[in-house]
Structure to design on (526 residues):
């Protein structure tokens, strides 16, 4: 700023240091066929994965099998139990945060699924949560079910013995 | 330079709003169609490049997530640009020039319906001095139209003639969204919507997708009996600030056209990406296309204007006519940015 030469009319005028330019755009989101099926399943108390013929089971599916590049056409009604394959303890408040910190979010590989589902892990202290922990879904009351992942309140440990989870990259073939 | 050709083209019919299928569900059939036309599966394709933008959907990472529809496993060589698919094609063309790969899949898609598209496009303008005024895309095009009229370079009747011809041509295009047969005189009787533009001077709001397969040298000849050889391709950009350029001409289109070799021989067909009718007149002048030139037989962007797609579709429409044998040499143009800020010109030719 020291090398700036101002026109006479601006000499002595307070310099502008920042500008606030609010922007807001509203979008109408189309869930698509696959996400619609998944959300409708939740409203019925089901966790529906999908697969393409010969493909892996994805939950939630967005409509395409990412390995085969074809639509996922077969629904798979998945059990509500699974293994925690990763987790994160959130200690830092952020904009829009709804949960009291610290809290745990985790990736749950439901039994029979090939893609982990992200959700909250509760009824478990942040010191006890660990990879390989067996968990089960805790749902809202039947009257409160809706087409939203919030139909599941959280996942909690179900007391089964731990499962050994493969390290990333192990067993991957191409 | 390596000879590279368009050997296949596919598109979906553009629609006002695709409210049932999500982006990847909408796009997947187009990718499958273009690969089928080329007789290639994904693992046989050397390079994949795509064009779209998250600003259309309002969701971060939505663009890259549509790679699921390509089936990128085992891992593929891939790139993508926050641009119309025409620029993804340019990158793929450059990639093939390096000589290591012989084929490329280029795809693009976009839904203009989910958000307020004319305001969404204002986010690409100068963030300090222009974007905070929220100048919508139609108003900016109207500024350009007003410049044309005041400079005596065109009349509103000429705008209407572009509209009438484009939408009449679109009646022959099963993928067009807006097609009708009305006279320029009828159109002139409409009240201006954003003066001096009438609603008919403006493009429809479109959701759509298209894709192209490129192949080099002998690989193109193996896969296609009459490849649309890219004889020249070039793109140029002008300053973003509207006050820094003459809006009644397109210097970047003229220069890109020269570099692409449009003047080397007559063209049978020209597909120009002119979303607003006055822009077609500017582009014709820049590319030296006279009043008898066969411009936008597809109906052009006035018939269907899926943002991020309409430019690649112009290239595809010319290429398909060459592949089919109904054209020998053609020029396709794509644009990006407000009031024809950035322009790409692609000259293609069939052999024999």
């Amino acid at each position: 700023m020291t090398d700036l030469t101002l026109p006479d009319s601006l000499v002595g005028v307070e310099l502008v240091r920042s500008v606030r330019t609010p922007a807001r755009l509203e979008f109408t989101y189309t869930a698509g066929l696959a996400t619609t099926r998944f959300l409708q399943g939740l409203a019925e108390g089901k966790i529906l994965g999908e697969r393409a013929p010969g493909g892996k089971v994805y939950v939630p599916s967005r409509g395409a099998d990412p390995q085969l590049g074809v639509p996922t056409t077969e629904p798979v009604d998945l059990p509500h139990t699974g293994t925690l394959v990763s987790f994160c303890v959130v200690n830092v408040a952020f904009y829009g945060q709804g949960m009291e910190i610290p809290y745990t979010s985790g990736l749950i590989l439901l039994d029979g699924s090939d893609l982990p589902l992200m959700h909250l892990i509760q009824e478990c202290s942040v010191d006890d949560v660990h990879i390989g922990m067996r968990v089960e879904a805790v749902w809202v009351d039947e009257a409160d079910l809706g087409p939203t992942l919030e139909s599941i309140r959280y996942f909690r440990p179900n007391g089964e013995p731990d499962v050994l989870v493969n390290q990333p990259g192990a067993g991957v073939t191409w | 330079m390596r000879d590279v050709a368009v050997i296949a083209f596919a598109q979906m019919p553009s629609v006002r709003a695709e409210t049932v299928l999500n982006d990847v569900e909408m796009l997947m059939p187009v990718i499958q169609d273009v690969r089928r036309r080329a007789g290639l599966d994904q693992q046989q394709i050397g390079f994949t490049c795509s064009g779209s933008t998250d600003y259309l959907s309002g969701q971060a990472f939505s663009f890259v997530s549509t790679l699921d529809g390509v089936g990128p496993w085992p891992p593929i060589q891939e790139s993508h640009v926050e641009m119309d698919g025409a620029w993804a094609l340019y990158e793929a063309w450059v990639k093939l020039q390096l000589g290591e790969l012989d084929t490329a899949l280029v795809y693009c898609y976009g839904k203009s319906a989910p958000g307020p598209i004319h305001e969404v496009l204002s986010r690409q303008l100068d963030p300090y001095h222009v974007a905070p005024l929220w100048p919508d895309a139609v108003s900016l095009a109207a500024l350009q139209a007003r410049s044309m009229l005041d400079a005596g370079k065109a009349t509103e009747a000429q705008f209407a003639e572009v509209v009438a011809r484009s939408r009449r041509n679109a009646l022959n295009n099963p993928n067009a969204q807006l097609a009708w047969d009305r006279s320029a005189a009828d159109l002139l009787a409409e009240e201006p919507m954003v003066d001096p533009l009438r609603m008919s001077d403006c493009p429809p709001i479109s959701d759509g997708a298209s894709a192209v397969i490129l192949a080099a040298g002998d690989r193109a000849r193996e896969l296609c009996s009459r490849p649309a050889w890219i004889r020249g391709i070039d793109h140029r950009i002008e300053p973003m600030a509207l006050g820094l350029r003459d809006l009644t001409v397109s210097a970047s289109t003229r220069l890109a056209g020269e570099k692409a070799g449009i003047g080397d021989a007559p063209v049978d067909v020209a597909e120009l990406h002119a979303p607003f009718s006055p822009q077609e007149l500017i582009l014709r002048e820049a590319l030296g296309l006279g009043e008898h030139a066969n411009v936008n037989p597809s109906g052009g962007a006035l018939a269907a204007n899926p943002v991020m797609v309409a430019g690649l579709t112009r290239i595809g429409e010319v290429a398909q006519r060459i592949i089919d044998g109904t054209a020998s040499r053609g020029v396709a143009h794509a644009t990006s940015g407000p009031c024809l800020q950035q322009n790409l010109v692609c000259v293609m030719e069939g052999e024999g």
Summary: Chain A touches chain B through 25 residues (CB under 8 Å). The beta strands of chain A are 47-51, 64-65, 70-71, 74-78, 81-90, 103-110, 117-121, 134-139, 152-157.
